[in-house]
């Protein structure tokens, strides 16, 4: 009897493993156009691996990530990414990190990460965070202070806003070595080339002068 149970358990695990291995790998870029021939191009979903004999401790090390960064942009925040580009040891591990600094009143504008779920930990100050679900749109928002944690589900629009009276900082962990960032305002009004004015005036129900004014902020 026990041998039969063990056999069924092993068979189930093997079946489950085959299903798991049959799924597509998570993408590390926005798209991967199929080449008709292997001679056309080669692109790895990640980076080629360094010879293990040449790997050193510094490949897994990023110094001085705790220092505040200078904010000079009009939105009042700066994101300093620690991805595979800055930390080669992250390659194929499916993670990345970001430090976000906020001036008083600073905002990390509404954006998405198409390839990652994000979890944020406040290091200094207090910020209001939120994300919006897919249709029907619903806003989930929360005030966070030092030590608080919040999660933004993969692909959903989210933001952070420093509502305190002093600068704030947060540490963000993401479930991809190359999560991607798509800022909503930049994507709509700052794409190259611009989205056609007729589309934007129809969608936002405003005069073309308003669209032109918004385009001008991203030139």
Give the topology, please.
Elements: H1 2-22, E1 77-82, E2 96-102, E3 107-112, E4 118-124, E5 126-132, E6 139-145, E7 149-152, E8 157-162, E9 168-174, E10 182-183, H2 184-189, H3 197-204, H4 208-216
Antiparallel strand pairs: 1-2, 2-9, 3-8, 3-10, 4-7, 4-9, 5-6, 5-8
Helix pairs in contact: 3-4
If you had to describe this structure to a student in words, what would you say it looks like?
With 219 residues, this protein is α+β, with helices and mostly antiparallel strands. The chain contains 4 helices and 10 strands. It has helices at residues 2-22, 184-189, 197-204, 208-216; strands spanning 77-82, 96-102, 107-112, 118-124, 126-132, 139-145, 149-152, 157-162, 168-174, 182-183. It has a 5-stranded antiparallel β-sheet with strand order 1-2-9-4-7, with no helix packed on it. Strands 6-5-8-3-10 form a 5-stranded antiparallel β-sheet. Helix 3 (197-204) crosses helix 4 (208-216). The longest helix is centred in the N-terminal third of the chain and has 21 residues, at 2-22. It is globular. It starts with a helix and ends with a helix. The mean pLDDT is 87.
């Amino acid at each position: 009897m026990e041998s039969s149970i063990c056999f069924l358990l092993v068979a189930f695990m093997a079946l489950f493993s085959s299903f798991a291995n049959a799924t597509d790998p998570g993408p590390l870029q926005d798209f991967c156009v199929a080449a008709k021939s292997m001679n056309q191009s080669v692109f790895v979903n990640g980076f080629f691996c360094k010879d293990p004999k040449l790997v050193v401790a510094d490949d897994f090390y990023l110094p001085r990530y705790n220092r505040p960064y200078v904010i000079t942009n009009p939105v009042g925040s700066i994101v300093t990414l620690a991805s595979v580009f800055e930390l080669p040891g992250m390659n194929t591990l499916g993670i990345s990190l970001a430090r976000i600094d906020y001036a008083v009143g600073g905002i990390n504008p509404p954006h998405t990460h198409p390839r990652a779920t994000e979890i944020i930990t406040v290091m200094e100050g207090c910020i209001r965070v939120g994300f919006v679900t897919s249709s029907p749109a619903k806003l989930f928002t929360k005030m966070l202070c030092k030590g608080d944690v919040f999660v933004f589900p993969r692909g959903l629009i989210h933001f952070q806003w420093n509502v305190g009276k002093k600068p704030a900082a947060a540490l963000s962990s993401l479930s991809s070595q190359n999560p991607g960032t798509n800022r909503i305002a930049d994507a709509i009004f700052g794409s190259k080339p611009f989205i056609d004015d007729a589309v934007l005036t129809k969608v936002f129900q405003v005069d073309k002068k308003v669209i032109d004014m918004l385009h001008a902020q991203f030139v």
